[in-house]
Amino acid sequence: MSIKQTSEISELFKLGIPAILAQLSQMALGVIDTMMAGSIDAEALAAIAVGTNIINPIIVFILGVFLALNPIVAHLNGRGSFEQIGVVFQQSTLAAFIMAVPAIYLLHHTESIMQFIGIQETLHQTVSGYLIACSYGVVPLFGFLALRFCNEGLFSTRAIMIVSVLAIPFNLLFNYWFIWGGLGVPAMGAIGIGYATALVWSIMFIAMLIYSLCSPRYQHLAIKSRWHAIDWQQLKELLVIGLPMGIGVGMEIAMFAFIGLMIGRFSVEIIAAHQIAINIASMAYMIPLGLSIAISARVGFFAGRNDRPNVQIAAKTGIIVAVSIACVSSLAMYLFAQPLIKLYTTENTVLTIATQLLVLAAIFQLSDAVQVALSGALRGIKDTRIPMVISAISYWAVGFPIGYFAAEALLMSARGYWLGIVAGLTTAAILLYWRYRVLFIHHSPIVFAKEHADVP
Questions:
Q1: Alpha-carbon gap, residue 95 to 142, rounded angstroms
Q2: What's the CA gap between 388 and 194, in Å, rounded?
Q3: E strand or H helix at 420, and its extent?
Q4: Which of 92, 186, 240, 264 has its CA 20 to 30 A from that of 63?
């Protein structure tokens, strides 16, 4: 290993460890919701599982769009265009408020979705109540995402980590309060988890806004002193880079969510087992996802400086580190499947089914780490369109059809759908590696970033 690679690993971990902890903390909010719903009863757990599978594609689509802010800000930082970074902060926050409007509308009209899929009618009222409660926090959530990715482009992952970690005790407190009632608040059961979530999102946005406006290291960016009118060119850049990314990431999460909804037609025990297994797998996924955010920032920074050798070193090093860590987490998941599941439930039927699913999750950890690390490197040079096509092929031409066939035709139930997840993620990893070799090895990633961003 060269000195440059060793140095890059050090820099990657400086950014990556806080980003991973932030991702784990944000994922922990969902895990806490699931565990506390499980403490009510299996039906409440199933309702939260269905509600999560409806709201997650919406959130992840917007998250995917705002992921573009990381390389946009990193490029500007690399070439020293600091005033323009302040404009990006302002315009992205404005975009967050605009994008929240259709999302809120969708969350208030989900009854037809549940009817179309065939979700048990006994769950409809609780799921709708939960989603409507969550909708009150959509504006601050989208604002938080916009500010988060702007900050990550400036390597400020530690601030995001602190905000995310501090959200956990608030989540526990508000969940307990609204589930069981007290101090003038009626007991709301699973629906109360939605109101708690909305409050936590609001606190995270306010904290991130205060940091972005008041941090001494950002004073030269003039974020608050010179407010700009709507900058259509800046919004165009966000959409040109971000929309394909949002669609691509959305397709992946939509496959997971739709599989979850299809599993929602099965017994309450199978739904609960799926939700537990997917929670554990998602927690493990936060590690390579956090590293991919750091990879994007490092690659984008060097691309802004026209430093091709370091662009390639940052990408290659990040991918190797992400895959190495995934090997460890995959082995741990396989060896400790039952102890992990027992943190959620002791019901024998749920425990047995969840264990079978978690073994499959251990298998797809590797391909998941490869695809998300490669996506981070490609995102750093603003390559988003071909990865979007790769997502469509991998998850909807390969993954879901295989899962549907195995589950419904071969009668494998939830395990069949999880085989589809393995197939989809493996296909994505292979195709994204092909794209990575084309741009980072056979061609210049710097030239690609300039010629294909469709921005000035």
A1: 9
A2: 31
A3: helix 414-436
A4: 264
Q: Give the residue carrying structure tokens 């047995």.
A: 352
pLDDT tier at 173, thresholds 50, 70, 90: very high
| 71, two tokens | 């390389």
Taken as a whole, the chain contains a residue count of: 456
Give the torsion through C-alpha atoms of 281, 285, 286, 287, to 10 deg: 120
**442 has a pLDDT exceeding 70:** no
3-class secondary-structure state, position 182: strand
Backbone angles phi, psi at 185, to 5 degrees: -100, 125
Nearest residue to 92 via CA among 35, 31, 153, 32: 153
Q: 162 in helix, strand or coil?
A: helix
Q: Which helix (H) or strand (E) holds 263?
A: helix 232-263
pLDDT band at 392 (very low <50, low <70, confident <90, very high): very high
Query: What pLDDT band is residue 380 in, cutting at 50, 70 and 90?
Result: confident
222-266 confidence digits (pLDDT tens): 666 666 566 667 677 777 777 788 888 878 877 887 888 788 778
End-to-end CA distance of the chain: 38
Q: Residues 21, 238, 81, CA angle at the centre, nearest 5°?
A: 85
Distance CA 415, CA 419 (A): 6
Tens of pLDDT, residue by residue over 34-63, are 778 777 777 777 788 788 878 887 888 888
228, HSE (Cβ side, Cα atoms, 13 Å): 21
CA dist., res. 389 & res. 247, Å (int): 9
In sequence order, what DSSP letters do the residues of 27-40 get, joined into one string?
A: HHHHHHHHHHHHTT
Are the CB atoms for 455 and 240 separated by under 8 Å? yes
CA distance 117 to 363: 28
Residue found by looking up tokens 């990715």 in the block: 149
Selection from 238, 289, 302, 290 nearest residue 68 by Cα: 238
Domain map (residue ranges) of the chain: 3-452
Beta-bridge partners for 185: 182
**pTM greater than 0.90 (yes/no):** no
Dist. CA 379–CA 373, nearest whole Å = 10
Amino acid at 420: G
CA 244 to chain centre: 15
Closest C-alpha to 296, from 84, 69, 20 = 69
**CA-wise closest residue to 340 among 325, 355, 350:** 355
Higher pLDDT residue, 374 or 189?
374
DSSP label of 226:
S
Helix ranges restricted to H, 181-231: 190-214
Residue 92 to residues 104, 114, 163, 229, 454, Cα–Cα distance (Å) = 18, 32, 19, 12, 18
